[in-house]
Amino acid sequence: MPVYERRSLLPVSTTELYAWHARDGALERLLPPWQEAILEHSEGGLADRRLVMKMRLAGPIWRRWVARHDGHEPGRWFRDVQDEGPFARWVHTHRFEPEGAGAVLVDSVAYDLPLGGLGAFVGGSFVAAELDRMFRFRHQRTREDLERHRGGNKMRVAISGASGLIGRQLGAFLTTGGHEVLRLVRREAGPGEVRWDPARGTVDAAALEGVDAVVHLAGESVAGGRWTAARKKEILESRRAGTDALARALAGLDRKPKVFVSASAVGIYGDTKDREVDEASDPGSGFLADVCKAWEAAADPARAAGIRVVHPRIGVVLSAAGGALAELRTPFSFGVGGPVGSGEQWFPWISMDDTIGALHHLLTAQAEGPVNLVAPAPVRQRELASTLGRVLKRPAVMPLPAFAVRTLFGEMGSEVLLAGQRVKPRRLGELGFSWLRTDLEAALRMELGR
Predict the structure, then answer these.
(1) Which of 25, 52, 55, 282 has a beta carbon 3.0–4.6 Å from 172's, enabling a disulfide?
(2) Distance in angstroms (rounded) separating the CA atoms of residues 299 and 162
(3) What is the DSSP string of 184-202?
(4) DSSP string covering 294-345
(5) Is residue 368 within 8 Å of 260, Cβ to Cβ?
(6) Who's near 396: CB < 8 A, 6+ residues apart?
(7) What tens digit of pLDDT does each residue of 359-378 get?
């Protein structure tokens, strides 16, 4: 029976390391973003947890994975075994061993492939490489999350857009760090949830009494197809009306939050060409710039009530689980990727982990108003294409001409794909934020496990 093992020395105690794994959100943080998996059910704690997931094996082939925890020693180890899934046998032991002032994280997996010796002959080396790829990612993310959580008081944080690409990861990051997270939902609220209806402007304000912070991420995607008049109205109102409703609800609370982090986007600068912009720069022109201006202004009721309001102007978040990188990954993997338009437009990127880290930083940093959430070194779109091709070991020479973008996507293509922003994150640097990934290739390799 093959056994895979990975060990990493981390600068925390075994108690802290065990507690991080025991909290809600740990699985979300540990699932590699390039692996398509859907968590269908989870119940119990580390001693008796049962998980049901669906995982994509290849193309349209999905496989159900059912695992249960069948033993643990608090602060030292726990074990999960597969009851149903792609392996003939899977026993994963997580150990936390003291060493000096820190702890060694040990992941040990004993497994058998289906079809016995034939399965091992055909897929053994591939599975071993995939396990190493996955656990390399898991150990790095565990280390980085634990280091970002060191020190500071625990908070009660409400999040809108908590089921979105950024919101899911932010919620998981905060809960594994020991913070309490309330998720705003449009359906009937359950435990740890707050009911709201942004379209109608209603919020269960009583459920928000006493929260320390609110992070507002909800809003209709701008990249969901051509911008018809109806679609543009939906995009604008999803941001303006939702922000206004939440800001007014917070302003009316007896125990107001210390901070309202209300998202915006670098689209507020319009197409900057080669002009470098920072938070002191004037807004640009175009539909996205107008949306962002209305979006930020809608938070005024909270500002007027004395709540510290921060607008993270978020760039293009790189995540293999969704957004721009997930859309680019498929054509580039098949060798048909390349620059969009001229490729000269600036691409204001930021890694997912730095997006989450920056939002966490803004909860306590004494910042108000706009803060650009981008990496310190934006690149041109053609550099993105060549770097992604290099990471995936594929050619990146199939351009998507500007006329084709305009024909296929209309105004959306012109503003989202052919325009660019050369954005400088001046305020984040002044606030003492430390980026994990300032190099594009390193960020892509982390997200894609390459």
Answers:
(1) 25
(2) 19
(3) EESS---TTEEEEETTTTE
(4) HHHHTTHHHHHTT-EEEEEEE-EEEBTTBHHHHHHHHHHHTT----BTTS-S
(5) no
(6) 332, 337, 338, 339, 385, 386, 388, 389, 390
(7) 999 999 989 999 999 999 99
